[in-house]
UniProtKB/TrEMBL annotation:
It is found in: Cell membrane. Its main location: membrane. One of its GO terms (cellular component) is plasma membrane. The chain crosses the membrane at residues 32-57, 69-87, 138-163, 183-203, 224-247, 291-313, 325-346, 352-378, 399-419. This is Permease IIC component. Keywords: Cell membrane, Membrane, Sugar transport, Transmembrane, Transmembrane helix, Transport. It comes from Pseudolactococcus raffinolactis.
Length: 435
């Protein structure tokens, strides 16, 4: 293990540092980290929205619309906040006005993400009480969440580069000396703002190009390959979900249109077979969503609960505090605080274990399934149940399913450990430089 850590520090870490220190990569990391307070607060409400105890969940049902509000305005529009943070950070590296750059980027992102909906008549809506939605124009915030994070990164970078280009080429309106800086900056940004507005308006609304929808369409040819029981298909699914997260794209959101119809039909087939007294070891499908949820995504996509536990032992003040904050959400398989707090997004050091760990765990769980050590999944439950319990629930309370979760967790701990030590060393160096 020490030899591996030394190899990573000598060979991998310099390359990772070079990539991670690149201006745009650094801006993306800083911008995403800036959303950490919101993801932490919002993530706790996910537990209430998907409460793992049925009796409590039933009592909370009437209040779900109200409980959903804090989540929607934090994690639910995370990409919007990230856009401002990324643009502001990139602008700082170019010595541009950060506030102006952030505002232009947010405008650009909204233009690329949302089509306003107009209601010509008021509409009655019933939640806890009857409400009236007045006629007017409304923005659907569904496209502002983590599933649009890749679009946020692209629009933030492009808008700042346009702003920088126009300022360098003096394509700006210069105000006389003595004009307050905030006023002067507003006029300097006039042409860049107009250019960004027209560019992204034409791309999204005139040409109809949607970045995230395009990614989903590109994956559609893979549907036949992914929708099967082959180990290779399962590994490709796991790899793509983790890979998209690394890029800052909500993996399940992108893969959903491709793989979710299979997931839904496969678990339905298993449940139907089980209700007809077929043995749990003889179900028709291995790779259901529940299989990945409980045996692979321990603590969330990338199996990050192991990383959280390692953070708790860290000598780095930041990582230790992040581990404390992320531990409880991690137990309930909510890992946005870690993905966006470390961050794992655009982090070359943590990319390898974030992808490798789930792949290894998928192989282990697959082998345990085909050798009948554990049964196949025959039911479904909400993702906020702690993993060993959830695994036993969906396998008809099979004790070996819970034991396999513990084994896979230990495996992920071993895989993450050397990369954690390298990342910890980088973080300690950064904290030392700041002090």
């Amino acid at each position: 293990m020490n030899g591996l850590i030394t190899f990573l520090e000598q060979k991998v870490s310099p390359i990772a540092a070079k990539i991670g220190g690149q201006r745009h990569m650094l801006a993306v990391r800083k911008g995403i980290i800036s959303t950490l307070p919101l993801t932490l607060v919002g993530s706790f409400f996910v537990i209430f929205l998907n409460f793992p105890i049925p009796a409590v969940a039933e009592k909370l049902t009437p209040y779900l619309p109200i409980l959903d509000i804090p989540y929607r305005f934090t994690v639910g529009i995370l990409a919007l906040y990230a856009t401002f943070g990324i643009a502001s950070s990139l602008a700082q590296s170019y010595k541009l006005d950060q506030l102006t750059a952030g505002i232009i980027a947010v405008m650009s992102f909204i233009v690329t993400s949302i089509k306003p909906v107009r209601l010509f008549e008021e509409v009655a809506k019933t939640n806890l009480q009857t409400e009236v939605v007045a006629a007017g124009r409304y923005l659907n915030i569904a496209n502002l969440g983590a599933q649009s994070l890749f679009g946020a990164i692209v629009t933030a970078i492009i808008s700042v580069e346009i702003y920088r280009f126009m300022k360098v080429k003096n394509i700006t309106i210069k105000m006389p000396e003595g004009v307050p800086p905030e006023v002067a900056n507003s006029f300097v940004a006039l042409f860049p703002a107009g250019a960004c507005l027209i560019l992204f308006w034409v791309i999204r609304h005139m040409l109809g190009f949607d970045i995230n929808a395009t990614l989903s369409n590109l994956l559609m040819p893979l549907q036949g390959f992914l929708a099967g029981n082959s180990l290779l298909g399962g590994l490709v699914t796991v790899f793509l979900i983790c890979f998209f997260w690394i890029l800052g794209i909500h993996g399940p959101a992108i893969m959903g249109p491709v793989i979710r119809p299979f997931w839904e039909s496969s678990i339905a087939e298993n449940m139907d077979a089980f209700s007809n007294h077929v043995a749990a070891t003889d179900m028709p499908n291995i790779f259901t969503e529940m299989f990945l949820q409980w045996f692979v995504w321990i603590g969330g996509a990338g199996s990050t609960l192991a990383l959280v536990c390692l953070f708790l032992t860290s000598k780095s003040v930041y990582l230790k505090e992040l581990g404390k904050i992320g531990f409880l959400p991690g137990l309930f398989n909510i890992n946005e605080p870690i993905i966006f707090g470390a961050p794992i997004v655009m982090n070359p050091t943590l990319t390898i274990p974030f992808i490798l760990s789930p792949l290894v765990m998928t192989v282990i769980a697959y082998l345990a399934t085909i050798t009948h050590i554990i049964p196949m999944t025959v039911s479904r439950t909400v993702f906020t149940v702690p993993s060993p319990i959830g695994a036993m629930m969906v396998t008809n309370w099979h004790i070996m399913a819970g034991i396999l979760v513990v084994i896979n967790f230990l495996v992920s701990l071993v895989i993450y450990y050397p990369f954690f030590k390298v990342f910890e060393k980088e973080q300690l160096a950064s904290e030392g430089a700041e002090s």
